[in-house]
Amino acid sequence: MTAPFYVPPEQLVKDRADFARKGVDRGRPIAVMALDIGVLLVGENASPSLRKIGEIYDRLAFAGVGRFNEFETLRVAGIRYADLKGYSYARADVTGKGLANAYSQTLGQIFTHEVKPYEVEIMVAELGQTHETDRLFRVGFDGTLRDAGPVAVLGAQQETIADAISTRYRSDLSLKEALAIATGTISDVMERESASTAWEAGFLDRDKQRRTFVRLSPDEVAERLE
Question: For the chain, which domains are there?
Fold first, then answer.
């Protein structure tokens, strides 16, 4: 009887992580900035219909990089999770931490037990009542959950872009200033110029009640980048 092929567990985990990380690093960057006026999410996206940034619930937004079909599956599952919890209990019980934990468990299970891990990295942004209570949660392809700071970047060259944005970041930035800093930094680091219509942007507006997510149209982004 032929002996089964053996791979050391640590090598198997390393190979899975390397595979998933390459997929994430191919993703176009998304920058997230927590400001006094709200939370801005902006990234390169040439597609007018395949969105990488979206609303989850009243004060929650989602951003994902990597394989579109995989993070879109997670986004839809997050909406169902939030709707069910808000309906069963109370809308205030739907929190960014709870959603990020659910994503962490799902991605950890897939990474450990499925043949192919998800090639994604996602961000859950929660708008607090004040800037100090805003929360950004980053969930990796292996289910690793981290509490990000006021500036976070997903995708290619994420550390370089985050460091560059952080040097110019202030919590009192206007939406126009924050958009210019994020898009300009991404363009400089990636060494390419993107048209104003090639940016996707969403904003959790602290002045709004209940549903706070606003999607900025390409024309609105272009106007603010002039």
Answer: 29-225 (3.60.20.10)
